[in-house]
Amino acid sequence: MMMKLKSTALTVLIAGFAGCLLISSCMFIPPLDDVADPKAGMNLSWSDEFDGASEAPDSTKWEYDTGAGGWGNNEVQTYTDTRTNSFVSNGTLKIKAVKSGSTWTSARLKTQGKYNFKYGYIEARIKLPAGNGMWPAFWMLGNNIGPVGWPNCGEIDVMEYSPGFVGLYKVFGTVHYPSTTGSHLYTSLGDTVDSSVVSKFHTYGVKWDSTSLTLYIDGKKIGTTFTKMADTPWPFDQDFFIILNVAMGGNLGGAIDASLTEAVMEVDYVRVYQ
Predict the structure, then answer these.
(1) Residue 63 is among the residues annotated as catalytic for this protein
(2) Where are the domains of the chain?
(3) 55, 63, 75, 155: which one is catalytic?
(4) What is the pTM of this model?
(5) Which of 55, 160, 262, 266 is catalytic?
(6) The domain at 32-273 falls in which architecture?
């Protein structure tokens, strides 16, 4: 009797397990694109890990834009190449906008002339500053901006943040490109709202190939893939260089909080996979 009960129980257990396998196999859902690793099958081709203790950014990798003049967006900061506005410490790059009297200084670093690339996946791990009126960004411009100008060179904004103008805790990506007549067109790659963007590091990336650009935040696809259009110029088939900066005020920064005296963007790393 005891053996029979054990046998019956075993039969039920096996049948139930088989049923679970059958149901599981029938309900299997392949991984969604928004959770797939965007750099799968690629290798790291360039990076800056900002591992220095206390020093200037690596001059073999970064150059500076300097000066004032509004930078095409009526911004108020003057960009410098001093350690007041950009430095590496404790394993991260700090880009620091600083108020001095009624003026602001900041920094804009770029890889132009030192590193450029075409296609792959680029990402940076960043913690954003708090306060209204600043406009930190991680973005790229076409390497031919000198001869053809903007927007003909193309622009890929991997991450921008403008709480005073676009919305509090809202980060977004955008692409800029010309029309057939050379006028400015742009398309949103997507956005997300997360209050932790000013207190924690998040990873912002774009996957880029010959026909499309897709935004990722913390490895998850955001928004809609931007694809090549037959009737619109496509400047995204050439080398681009990388830019990191913190702008203040202007068309997208908006009004600067009177109590704000500094705004610091911290960058843990920038990596390119191909």
Answers:
(1) no
(2) 32-273
(3) 155
(4) 0.87
(5) 160
(6) Sandwich (2.60)
pLDDT tens digits in sequence order for the chain, 274 residues long: 333 343 444 443 444 444 444 434 334 444 445 668 999 999 999 999 999 766 999 999 999 999 999 999 999 999 999 999 999 999 999 999 999 999 999 999 999 999 999 999 999 999 999 999 999 999 999 999 999 999 999 999 999 999 999 999 999 999 999 999 999 999 999 999 999 999 999 999 999 999 999 999 999 999 999 999 999 999 999 999 999 999 999 999 999 999 999 999 999 999 999 9
**Is 155 a catalytic site residue?**
yes
Q: Which two tokens stand for residue 134?
A: 């600043």
Cβ neighbours for 9, distance < 8 A, ≥ 6 positions apart: none
